[in-house]
Amino acid sequence: MSGSADRLPRLLALVPYLMSHPGAQVGEVAEVFGLSEKQLIDDLQLVWMCGLPGHTPGDLIDVSWDGGEIVIDNADTIARPLRLGIDEASALLVALRMLAAMPELAEVPGDALPRVVAKLERAAGEGAAEVSSQVAVDVDAAPDALPRVRDGLTRRRRLSLRYYVPGRDEVTPREVDPMRLVVADGRTYLEGWCYRAEAMRLFRLDRVLGVDVLDVPADPPAEAEPIDVTRGVFRPSPTDELVELEVSAAGRWVAEYYPCERLAELGEGRLRVTLRARDEDWVVKLALRLGDTGRVVSPPAMAERVREQAERALALYAHRS
Amino acid sequence: MSRRKTERLLNLVICLLATRRPLSAEQIRHAVPGYDRDGDEAFQRMFERDKNELREIGIPIDVVRDPWEEEPGYRIQRQSYELPEITLEPDEAAVLGLAAQVWQRASLAEAASGALLKLRAGGVATDESIGGGVGGGALELRVDTRDPAFPALWNAVRDRRVVRFDYRGAGSENVRERTVEPWGVVSRRGRWYLAGFDRDRRAPRAFRLSRITGQVATVGRPGAVEVPEGVDLRAMVGFPEDPAPERTALVRVRQGACEGLRQLATAVHPGSEGWDEAELVFTDTERLAGWMASLGADVEVVEPPDAREAVIRRLKGALA
């Protein structure tokens, strides 16, 4: 909220904030509003120039920040913040309804959810309740693994997982120190320190085929930092090999399913997709799955491997079809 | 926005809130610094723009037309401007803190943090750090609205406006223009859908946002869309109610390979000469064929024949 176009709404929140937090510190207020101290003081100087018609000293808002402590006076007209806009209230209401739809995950104490929804609807302008009921976020039903994973989390116990990796069609045993649950893209993940990878990993709960809570305290190493999921759960490593595929209209799902580096329309629904391959096997499997709806363009060696594998597989069918 | 303009708008808000009686444009011109310098026409234009900008940020300006006065009067009613008194219990604040961090992209993330800021400004304790209190700080919720069409469709749903956009049906080679009365937007498995009435097909339909190409245009006036009562948006984007019947496939699996397949199989019968046999339950033949083809020479579908053929077709396609 530091752009100049947002300045007026910010000032209309800043004045009430200062009124309801008398003696607040410059540094603390700047942080709440996402400003530098210099920007905040500039805001205060602007506010100090405003006030009731007449604009005699007695009409103007009085504000001082001696010694970093902000004191405001004579601002009764705008002492309350502006009511919530439809978008503002809806953004919160939709998220609250999503929480309400996943009681196994959010485990919100008591009836806090309906209470806060009711309060927000009252505080919002007309229309917010209606709009927010027209936007819905579905989260997958609680996966079977959830209760035990949750148990491990709350009791801080190491978990032993059997985890399915579809890209390689493998089931691998993992010992994991659970750290938190992440719900992103409509799926639930366990985030924890994986002793097999010796790194933080996200495990999709619906791919956990089995889980045991071990009688070992979870003790993740000091370097176990939460994974930043703000830009998506899957983020291929920049060192992974770049692969170029051409897909037909029926193969466009690839671009929706995997994070892509580049997309180029080729006409008639065809698409050139550039993505980073986690490993070579993964690309070969993807190309075989795509059949005639997609092909590897580069690197050529990868395209050759796909042909080899397809030939070997077809040989199985040739011997008795 | 220049500093001078921000100052003028803030003074205008204070002036319109403070007045008991509606003020004419002329009275406002004299009361609010920044207007006085300009000529009549320049003032009129400036005042119009200012009113619009205040309305855009949600400030309700009343226009009062008194039959005895020539000019309309303006004021802001305190009770429609102010955030009503609201207090949150600690558990409510915790839930709200969690809800406020759900959105990942600019439009809604800013709306949510704007709302939180107003509540805090109103003296409500909504310490975001308490948000972690739900589930012992061990839960993070994220909803992404990465599709470029999302903001326009959110606005259209909010304003009840008909929309028009180019859309590529699933697997279709062609892009067609669609005109839709939006009823709502729904996220399912991390993908966003628009649910509404398709005017071209004269039927309710769901559209995946990622298949909308180009801009979303609005058609006609706000408020034109009627959402039918009791419409179930989630059901509109759900799976068909009548899924294909379950069938069982018999596959040969190379020994020592396809661990995942073996885990998901309903039965695995040890065989000879390096091969086992597994039974897999499936509904969608093409989905099964895609999976089996991806496993290459480690698996051979024995039956049913249509699934076997589908795998052969894919492998030949990959060879071509």
UniProtKB/TrEMBL annotation, chain A:
Q: Which InterPro entries match?
A: CBASS_pafABC_assoc_protein, PafC-like, PafC_HTH, WCX_dom, WYL_dom
Query: Domain WCX, which positions?
Result: 242-314
Q: Cite the PafC HTH domain residue spans from the record.
A: 6-122
All residue ranges annotated as the WYL domain in the record: 145-212
* Protein name (record): Helix-turn-helix transcriptional regulator
Please name the Pfam families in this protein's record.
Answer: HTH_PafC, WCX, WYL
UniProtKB/TrEMBL annotation, chain B:
List the coiled-coil residues. Answer: none
One matching Pfam family, short form? WYL
- Which parts of the sequence belong to the WCX domain? 247-319
Where the record annotates domain WYL, the positions are 149-213
Q: Which InterPro entries match?
A: CBASS_pafABC_assoc_protein, WCX_dom, WYL_dom
Name of the protein in question: Helix-turn-helix transcriptional regulator
Species of origin: Nonomuraea indica
